[in-house]
């Protein structure tokens, strides 16, 4: 897909709706803009952060935090 857009005085561009929908971009979505060195083109892709995944997965079994901490301390030395 190739679309045409214009750069504003502030240096902003509008990403066409079909591209925003295909990439599931909303107004709060962070994106990465990558400049291809040696080429006159850029790549846009959604910015995924590990923190965005917080709370999306459930453990297979309940975890006792104190027990988990004891296991960690038992198996790993402090540096």
From TrEMBL:
Coiled-coil parts of chain: none
GO molecular function annotations of the record: DNA binding
Superkingdom of the source species: Bacteria
Gene3D superfamilies hit by this protein: 2.10.260.10
Matches recorded under InterPro entries: SpoVT-AbrB_dom, SpoVT-AbrB_sf
Keywords: DNA-binding
Domain SpoVT-AbrB: 2-47
Protein name: SpoVT-AbrB domain-containing protein
Organism: Candidatus Woykebacteria bacterium RBG_16_44_10
């Amino acid at each position: 897909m190739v679309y045409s857009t214009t750069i504003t005085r502030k240096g902003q561009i509008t990403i066409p709706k079909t591209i925003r929908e295909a990439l599931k971009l909303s107004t709060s979505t962070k994106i990465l803009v990558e400049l291809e060195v040696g080429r006159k083109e850029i790549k846009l892709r959604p910015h995924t952060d590990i923190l965005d995944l917080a709370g999306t997965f459930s453990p297979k079994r309940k975890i006792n935090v104190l027990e988990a901490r004891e296991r960690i301390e038992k198996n790993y030395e402090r540096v």
